[in-house]
Specification:
Length: about 120
């Protein structure tokens, strides 16, 4: 049986994905990083387990720039992301929850849509 220490680097490694969206004729590409367990816990705790707010927080904390540096990983960023179109936020929630292992690729709808 492999030792967990052997897989530590893989368990901690950040993974990234991109979601492109056509907005008024312009294609915008959002780059998202996998959340850590601590980030996920912080997002859900701060949202007081309100799923829609937790989803917005997870998107804000996962959005990164081309250098993989966080863009909106603070309360001001959460407020900005909360003003995005709901359709875009839901696509980004689906992407970050899948990337972070919180749901599978086969899940058709995010739990965050049940608000």
């Amino acid at each position: 049986m492999p030792n967990i220490r052997e897989f530590e680097k893989k368990l901690i490694e950040r993974k990234y994905t991109e979601v492109s969206e056509n907005i008024d004729g312009d294609v915008i590409t959002f780059r998202l990083r996998r959340l850590t367990a601590k980030e996920w816990l912080d997002c859900t705790s701060a949202a007081r387990h309100r799923e829609s707010e937790a989803g917005i927080r997870m998107v804000a904390w996962s959005l990164v720039d081309e250098n993989n540096d966080p863009i909106y990983a603070n309360e001001e960023g959460v407020q900005i992301v909360s003003q995005f179109s709901p359709g875009i936020v839901l696509k980004l929630v689906d992407a970050v929850t899948t990337l972070s292992g919180l749901k599978t690729e086969d899940d058709k709808r995010s739990d965050f849509r049940k608000t």
